[in-house]
Amino acid sequence: MATQYIPLSMCPLSGPTGLFQPQQDLPEKVELDSPAILTMTDLRQVSAQTVEPNLSIDEALTRMKEGGVRLLFVTNPQAEVLGLITSTDIQGEKPLQFLKETHVRHEEILVRDIMTWSEQMEVMLLEDAMKARVGDIVETLRRCGRRHALVIAQAPHKRDLAIRGMFSVTQISRQLGIAIETVEVATTFAELEAALTH
User: Fold this and answer.
1) How confident is the model at residue 160 (pLDDT cuts 50, 70, 90)?
2) Helix, strand, or coil here: 45?
3) Which pLDDT band, with edges at 50, 70 and 90, does 150 fall under?
4) Which residue from 111, 121, 155, 172 lies 20 to 30 Å from 101 (Cα-Cα)?
5) How far apart are CA 146 and CA 56, in angstroms?
6) How far is residue 24's CA from residue 34's CA, in Å, rounded to a whole number?
7) Which domains does the chain show, CATH number per domain?
8) CA 42, CA 50: separation in Å to the nearest integer?
9) Per-residue burial over 140-161, b = 16 or more CB atoms within 10 Å of its CB, e = otherwise
10) pLDDT number for residue 1
11) Apex CA 151: angle with CA 150 and CA 156, to 5°?
């Protein structure tokens, strides 16, 4: 016996309309002993904000403000992550150091000139993040002196690993209801030397 299918009614679209955007609903409040995953921005649910390496840092900062984020993934045309750039990179010492070394104008500084390249990035595994508590992530960020921690996992249908999410001091602070301070620390000998000479 053939199944009878019923067509749905259609109606005209009246005027301009918007699009649904991916959204992740994280709990409003967490404790230090809560599962850390309750504070992780999951890139399966929230679109990663990206920037091209040849864009100016001023344009990158504008993109951050418009997107309400403090970190952009730097990607190539194949959507591969080349690195990242943060608002701290743009508004901190890096542009001043670059200006001293190259004598270009501030508006000529590009994302690629001050970004953190992927070879310099440190990440944590999703399986470790799944077992961690919020306090463990806070301590990790404090020890690393960073405002963000990236989480990697097996990419679907691929053997490669991909960035699955991130922890942010701003997000965790909001959910804990307290300010968390992390101090940027020098991670290479060159950065350490530069920090000591200032």
Assistant:
1) confident
2) coil
3) very high
4) 121
5) 23
6) 18
7) 36-186 (3.10.580.10)
8) 15
9) bbeebebbbbbbbbeeeeeeee
10) 66
11) 130
